[in-house]
Design goal:
Elements (H helix, E strand, L loop, with lengths): L4 E5 L2 E2 L6 H19 L4 E8 L3 H10 L3 H18 L6 E4 L3 H16 L3 E11 L4 E3 L17 E11 L5 H10 L4 E2 L13 E2 L1 E3 L7 E3 L2 E6 L2 H4 L2 H4 L15 H4 L5 E5 L3 H15 L9 E5 L2 E2 L15 H8 L1 H10 L7 E2 L2 H31 L2 E2 L13 H26 L5 H22 L1 H4 L6 H22 L4 H11 L28 E2 L17
Parallel strand pairs: 1-3, 1-13, 2-3, 3-4, 8-14, 13-14, 15-16
Antiparallel strand pairs: 5-6, 5-7, 7-9, 10-12, 11-12, 17-18
Helix pairs in contact: 2-3, 10-11, 11-12, 12-14, 12-16, 13-14, 13-16, 14-16, 16-17
The structure holds 5'-O-[(L-methionyl)-sulphamoyl]adenosine.
5'-O-[(L-methionyl)-sulphamoyl]adenosine binds next to strand 2, helix 1 and strand 13.
Length: about 550
């Protein structure tokens, strides 16, 4: 069965508008997906929204509208934003979708029939504000429940529970045997795995959820609804317990790479999800992998609505453009680590790396080719063996040409790893661009053009620059799709009607030195990355 590279992000809560953390994760996944497409792989990218739950129910009540209308309005904001930011997914996972609901209900029914789900009574302290039972872990050092829990009362409630215990030994053994299932770090599940998982809420206090088929007085709560999206939207059939008998459309995608933030690895993705899959009969080799990213903070502190420091990606994209925002979010963080969001850095990096460096390189290459060679790039070109040139000068030029063309191999290798360190790929491309600009300074084409004996040196330099730009465009495409098309258009490359503007213009196989043919005519330069002159406050 041909395999698809199947990747998902977390589905975002719809109790508020999208923020920068959501945007980062969707763009990171989009960039990784695009690197895999560039390699010619079949890719399926699933993302969406987590629409049920207490918070939505409360917000909708406050707004005086039905929860469905409430989530529809917020969902529309997410969809419009991903569109604006060029996040290209293959399937939209919205948890109120009937396809999803039926799958969740089928899964829960099967686990209930198999006695993996049971009903039990819970008695204890309950936070009305956070809608959860509290344990001693939630107590302050002085033994009290802090103000963040609001009103705390003693309650007794019956709910349904999913048995985790029978899978505990299996999970610990699986994680030990597969340390690479989580990037960048191994999860430490041991001490977190205790008790069973409450999977329901009585409708009397939460009606906005998926009803349990075996007890219509209840809805399922949180993780069985949310995590299941990863299989429900790609055709998992809950009535079939044997994995190998699942529809081929499902099997060709699964297992997934889940791209999630560090806050939802333990216990949700690292403990509950593998156990849920194991309980459903998924074999070990079908367990998913996790790419866990860090957080964007503000001056080292968490963004939060109550602090009023939540960054809005929509207005940033309007102010600076989608590409500037994509570039910043991909280049100023190391995957797996946290970073501080600073609008000033966004402007600085865009201006230095894109406007001054890459944009300038494109502009000067095309204007020199136009001015000195009527746009024609002759090559691949050799250095002119003419005497009369100082040894040092010849050596410098030759060496710089080698440095630049050699970077094609380095960059190609970095990108084809299509690893998760997008920041490193961008780093290599920036270094390459800098080396090209250095080549212009070392070679001084404006001097070469005045000396007929150095015509082939000039050709070699112009070829080296145009060919670098062509390959840089391919390798930067995942991060900056619009700019990559812009560079191709200006290079007058892959302009056939069936390719122009399409992603099919780009492939990693084309990112090899020397594929730009001798005599290719490049286009005229138009500024691709106009400098951002506004200040963060402006
Ligand atoms: N709905 C759950 C996930 C269910 S997945 C089956 C959820 N939603 S969320 O809206 O709170 O978060 C969605 C994703 O955004 C998570 O992966 C989370 O880690 C990520 N981020 C939320 N804030 C973030 C930052 N400040 N920075 C980076 N990512 C952050 O959790």
């Amino acid at each position: 069965m041909p395999k698809t590279f199947y990747l998902t992000t977390a589905i975002d809560y719809t109790n508020g508008a999208p923020h920068i953390g959501h945007a980062y994760e969707k763009i990171l996944a989009d960039v990784i997906a695009r690197y895999h497409r560039l390699k010619g792989e079949e890719v399926f990218y699933l993302t969406g929204v987590d629409q049920h739950g207490q918070k939505v129910q409360q917000s909708a009540e406050k707004a005086g509208i039905a929860p469905q209308q409430f989530v529809d309005e917020i969902t529309a904001k997410f969809i419009a934003l991903w569109d604006k930011l060029d996040v290209r997914y293959d399937r939209w996972a919205a948890t109120t979708d009937p396809v999803h609901k039926t799958c969740v209900q089928g899964i829960l029914q099967r686990l209930y029939d198999e006695k993996q789900i049971y009903k039990d009574k819970q008695e204890g302290y309950y936070s009305v504000r956070q809608e959860q039972f509290l344990t001693d872990k939630e107590r302050d050092p002085d033994g009290e429940f802090g103000p963040e829990w609001g009103q705390v009362e003693h309650r007794t409630e019956e709910n349904y529970y999913f048995k985790l215990e029978p899978h505990k030994e299996w999970l610990l053994g699986y994680l030990r045997a597969h340390p690479d299932c989580v990037t960048p770090e191994l999860i430490n599940a041991d001490e977190k795995l205790s008790g069973d998982l409450c999977i329901s809420r009585p409708k009397s206090r939460l009606s906005w959820g998926i009803e349990l088929l075996f007890d219509s007085a209840y809805v399922t709560y949180v993780w069985f609804d949310a995590l299941t999206n990863y299989i429900s939207f790609v055709g998992y059939d809950p009535s079939i317990s044997s994995f190998s008998l699942q529809p081929s459309t499902f099997q060709e995608k699964w297992p997934a790479l889940h791209i999630i933030g560090k806050d939802i690895l333990i216990p949700a993705h690292g403990i509950y999800w593998p156990i849920m899959l194991h309980a459903l009969g998924f074999p070990d080799e079908q367990m998913p992998k996790f790419l866990v990213h860090g957080w964007w903070n503000i001056s080292g502190a968490k963004m939060s609505k109550s602090l009023g420091n939540v960054i809005d990606p929509d207005s940033l994209a309007d102010k600076y453009g989608a590409e500037a925002l994509r570039y910043y979010l991909m280049s100023d963080i190391v995957t797996g680590k946290d970073s501080d969001f600073e609008e000033r850095r966004l402007i600085e990096l865009y201006n230095s790396d894109l406007a001054n460096s890459l944009g300038n390189l494109l502009n000067r290459t095309l204007s020199m080719a136009g001015k000195y060679r009527n746009g024609q790039v002759l090559g691949p070109g050799r250095l002119n063996p003419e005497p009369g040139m100082a040894e040092g000068e010849r050596w410098n030029l030759g060496q710089q040409l080698n440095v630049v063309s050699g970077l094609a191999v380095v960059a190609n290798k970095e990108a084809s790893g299509a690893g998760f360190d997008i920041h490193d790929v961008i780093g290599v491309l920036n270094h390459w661009t800098t080396q090209c600009n250095t080549l212009v300074e070392v070679a001084a084409p404006w001097k070469l053009v005045k000396d007929d004996s150095r015509a082939s040196d000039l050709n070699a330099v112009l070829y080296c620059l145009a060919e670098s730009l062509r390959i840089i465009a391919i390798l930067i495409l995942p991060a900056l799709p619009k700019a990559a098309h812009g560079i191709f258009d200006q290079l007058n490359w892959k302009m056939e009607p069936e390719l122009a503007g399409k992603e099919a213009r780009f492939s990693l196989a084309d990112a090899e030195w020397g594929k730009l043919p001798d005599g290719h005519i490049v286009g005229k330069p138009t500024p691709l990355f106009p400098r951002i002159e506004t200040s963060p406050e402006g």
